Amino acid sequence: MTTTSDSEFGKEIVSLVQRRFPSAGIALCRQLGDSITIRREKLIDKRRNWSARTDHTKVSLPDPRGPSLERLDEPPEKAPTTLMSNTSTDQQDSLDYPPLPTIAPGKTHVRCRLCCMKLKMEGSEEENTNHWRRHIDEDVKPYGCLFPECSKSLRYFVHRHESESHMLSAHYKDWLRNVHASTWFCDLGHSPPVKFKTELLWKEHILDSRWHTKGERRLTKLQLDDLSSRKQLNAPRGQFACPLCERVPDELSQTVAEGNGDPDEMNKMLVSHVASHIKSLSLMAILSVEESAKKITDTENDSLVSQGIPAKDG
Predict the structure, then answer these.
(1) What separation in angstroms does the CA of 46 have from each of 53, 110, 283, 293, 300?
(2) By 3-state DSSP, what share of the chain in percent is helix, strand and coil, each rounded to 5?
(3) What's the pLDDT score for residue 28?
(4) Where do the structural domains in the chain lie, given as residue ranges?
(5) How far apart are CA 219 and CA 27, in angstroms?
(6) Is 1 helix (H, G, I), strand (E, B) or coil?
(7) What does the buried/exposed string (b/e) look like for 131-165 if buried means 16 or more CB atoms within 10 Å of the residue's CB?
(8) Which tens digit of pLDDT belongs to each residue from 92-106?
(9) Strand 143-144 to 117-120 pairing
(10) How far apart are CA 283 and CA 28, in angstroms?
(11) Which residues does the annotated region (Disordered) include (predicted)?
(12) How many Å separate Cα 25 from the centre of its chain?
């Protein structure tokens, strides 16, 4: 169920994406913002479902994902006020992972604060941190397809290579130049035609009485959609340009200017650059999940108190 706070989060996250990538198209920013919101809702639902299950049973069943992950029937530990820890990638994106929970002396397991799973930690600090982050990636599925039709079907991936394979098999090799590269134009009474970055802006223009006659304003939805398909153009961006930055990344700019690079290697660098953007944005889904989980518990406690039942301790 979507609450007012969820809607507010959705609006705020789209604005944040737009501020972070001011050159990116409005439709792409909205799509990325929506994907962050959906991931966040899934994480909150996981915790809500776990809370409901542990209210009805004290028996912990084996988890099908293997011996290193088990469900717990005790409440998750309190999380620190700041859930995020920042690391930087070569692409200057901030990857905000929750910090690895403290491993108590003599213990070999920690609990994930996002999905309430128990993870075995018996390696070095570096090995445990990497294991923790791989688990977070499994929860969040940080890679996604940038094409709207796939985004609507919630095509998310745990690993980057899965996303890259999808882009090549479901779309085409030159997808980076063409994704979210459509423009709409109106040549009804305009010379030269007026161009629009999104279909929504084009439709608003077509239906605006200041620009067009009552004939256009009386178009049915079907007629308007048909006209839209005929007034749409694909305008591929420049080669090796990032669809979020809408320019050649700094790490490629000199090679592109000199024109002496290996195109395949340059394309790999660009794909890595874009993937880093997408993962960094996706991990923003973790923002406020702890606060939302606390609200779930508070709501449950309020309901119990209203029935004269002692509230659960956090």
Answers:
(1) 11, 18, 16, 10, 16
(2) 50, 10, 40
(3) 92
(4) 4-144+275-306, 182-234
(5) 24
(6) coil
(7) bbbebbbbbbbbbbbbbeebbeeebbbeebeebbe
(8) 566 788 889 888 888
(9) unpaired
(10) 17
(11) 54-98
(12) 16
Per the listing, tokens 């200057």 go with: 92
Q: Is the pTM of this model over 0.70?
A: yes
Q: How confident is the model at residue 79 (pLDDT cuts 50, 70, 90)?
A: very low
Alpha-carbon span 185 to 235, nearest angstrom: 12
On whether the CB atoms of residues 131 and 119 are closer than 8 A, the answer is yes
- Residue 1 is encoded by which pair of tokens? 């169920």
Residue 223's identity, in one-letter code, is Q
Task: Say which amino acid occupies 234.
Answer: N
Name residue 132's amino acid.
Answer: W
Tokens of 310: 């002692």
Asked if 18 and 197 touch (Cβ cutoff 8 Å), the reply is no
> In the numeric block, which tokens belong to residue 303?
């309901």
**Are 197 and 183 a contacting pair, CB within 8 Å?**
yes
Task: Tell which residue, 20, 289, 264, 17, has the closest CA to residue 140.
Answer: 289
CA angle, 43 then 45 then 50, to 5°: 100
